[in-house]
Amino acid sequence: MAPGARTGLEIGAAVIVAAVAAVYLPQVLELFSLINATVWVSMAVLALSLGLVWGFGGILCFGQTAFFGLGGYTYAVASINFGDTTWAVPLALLMPTLLAAALGYLMFYGRISDVYMGVITLTTTLILFKFASSTAGDEWNIGEAPLGGFNGIPATPPLNFPLAPDQQLVPEQIFAVAVLCLVACYAIAKLVLRTRFGRVCVAIKENELRAELLGYDVRLHKLVMFALAGMMAGLAGVLFANCVFVSPTMFSLSYAGQVIIWVLVGGIGTLVGPVIGCVLVQMLTTYAGTLSWIDPNLLLGLVFMAAVVAVPKGLLPTASGLLARLTGRAQL
Amino acid sequence: MTTLLSTDGLTMRFGGVTAVDGVTLSIAAGELRCLIGPNGAGKSTFFKCLTGQYKPSGGRIFWRGRDVTGLDSFAISRLGIGIKTQVPSLFDGLTPMESVGLALRRLHGEAEARRRAVRALERLGIGALGHRRIGLLAHGQRQLVELAMVVAPEPDLIILDEPTAGMSADETNRAADLIRELNREHAIVVVEHDMHFIRAIARKVTVFHQGRVLMEDEAAHVFADPRVRDVYLGKAVS
Ligand SMILES: Nc1ncnc2c1ncn2[C@@H]1O[C@H](COP(=O)(O)OP(=O)(O)OP(=O)(O)O)[C@@H](O)[C@H]1O
Ligand SMILES: [Mg+2]
């Protein structure tokens, strides 16, 4: 199959699955479950963004939550101040993009090695966590929005229809918007990887020196890729803010770590893998929370260790490898 | 004949080690130059300075008379300088077609890049390997893939650092033919240890020793020179 046709097919399949989910799930799920599902979808967007920058850009980002949280906070603060979410959304995409661009500039143009990139990105999100946690009190109001310290901003408004502040979306609609965003991000990532830019990014991940010697500006490519993934994480933050509300937890170590686990479990080097990893791990987390005979975190830790040993490449690559073996097709 | 590339007192130090020590050298358009010298003479380091992988500690590099010292590797590549590095530098997870295609995509549209990539691979006798994963290819085949990536965009100057290392006799002959053929349109600088290979392709030979240019002459004269023999036998040269 031609690569172009294949990309089209994959995007088409994703659209169908999403359309079914967006229409069907709100009819069968209770409100609480639906909101929970929306949270998962927003997390899936976050996982996708890390899957893109790590799996295809080769950039080890341990602090993808920095952009996630910043997106959420920007959305909350801006929509409270504007009294309308229409312009809050683009602003909430812009801020994380700018942060990613600035951070990327420092890291890539400062020729910082991979390990330190992990350290720097993780530190960034932890600094933001510390900062957001220390914003209790009136001196931390931005316009009309109180940052609220550790409690965050419980008054984060839900999305409204464009330019119609009094027509707020109901949870069913927010769920549909979240699913739409997930599919859009997936399609964008797929298409970007088909462009020359995307292919050069993959080549850079394979061998930075060779890409450079072929005349490609490695640092610029990494910067753009990093900023793009930062924007996606910001969008995830907006969606998250719509079903929970923004608080410093969005920047926390536990969130930052979870995203990495989702991507690892789902499979680095795929786009669907991180989404599947995210949903599966979250389902497991929820289930573990209902068990009384074992500590949920302990169970998760054990499952994760088992996953790393049993499917080191991640679920999706392993599954497609098995499928290829079963159908006797040579795996490329 | 016009000078393509020249260096003036090029020097590269690593701490206390001076790997390249005041090298002044120039390559004319259309030239085919061999660089020889014992292990550790500084040939690869010299190339890394030329291609921007190292920022030289001293001296200047000129491309068509323009000072290009300190430019980044990608910018040097865009001037029209291609290098095949001594340690093969490939995209192991990609196929030869994808890799050579990528080398061409900077200059050509997608369809044209693909057409030229097919041609480049066929020219090197590895057309049949176009869709294999490079990581799974044999060493000699990998060398040819890298060569294809370097020559396909038709750079004005092609630098080859031990291109035939690890190749079979057959592959080496093909590479020698290719180098001569490429030389009709491109200037080439090649490092080689194999004397037969050098005799087969070279006109002018530059001998490196301890980071300096020991001598520069026609191949026949160089090989007849006692100093060169001493260097290769490991004797000290005064
Ligand atoms: N990155 C580096 N750091 C420190 N020393 C280096 C570095 N690169 C090269 N050298 C030293 O510089 C000298 C020249 O090395 P270089 O690789 O340029 O030699 P060469 O002529 O290419 O040798 P060979 O024929 O073995 O490829 C050697 O003594 C080497 O140890
Ligand atoms: Mg060398």
Description:
The complex is a heterodimer of chains A (332) and B (238). In chain A, 72% of the residues lie in helices and 3% in strands. Chain A has 332 residues and is mainly α. A two-stranded antiparallel ribbon of chain A has the order 1-2. In chain A, a hairpin with a 2-residue loop joins β3 (160-161) and β4 (164-168). Chain A is globular and about 60 Å long. Chain B is of the alpha/beta class and 238 residues long. Chain B has a domain at 1-80 and 190-238: P-loop containing nucleotide triphosphate hydrolases (Rossmann fold). Chain B has helices at 43-50, 73-80, 96-105, 110-123, 139-151, 169-182, 195-201, 219-224, 226-233, and strands spanning 3-14, 17-28, 32-36, 58-63, 66-67, 81-84, 157-161, 187-191, 204-209, 212-218. The longest helix of chain B is centred in the middle third of the chain and has 14 residues, at 110-123. The mean pLDDT of chain B is 91. Bound molecules: adenosine-5'-triphosphate and magnesium ion (MG). Residues 14, 17, 19, 37, 39-45, 86 of chain B line the site of adenosine-5'-triphosphate.
Brief rundown of the structure:
The complex is a heterodimer of chains A (332) and B (238). Chain A has 332 residues and is mainly alpha-helical. Chain A contains 13 helices and 4 strands.
Find the CATH superfamily of the domain at 1-80 and 190-238 in chain B.
P-loop containing nucleotide triphosphate hydrolases
Order of helices and strands of chain A: HHHHHEEEEHHHHHHHH
Ends distance of chain B: 34 Å
Give the low-confidence spans of chain A. none
Weakly predicted, low-confidence segments of chain B: none
CATH fold assignment of the domain at 1-80 and 190-238 in chain B: Rossmann fold
- Structural class of chain A, by secondary structure, is mainly alpha
Q: Gyration radius of chain A, to the nearest Å? A: 20 Å
The biggest chain-chain interface is:
A-B, 18 and 26 residues
Strand content of chain A: under 5%
Count up the domains of chain A.
2
CATH architecture of the domain at 1-80 and 190-238 in chain B: 3-Layer(aba) Sandwich
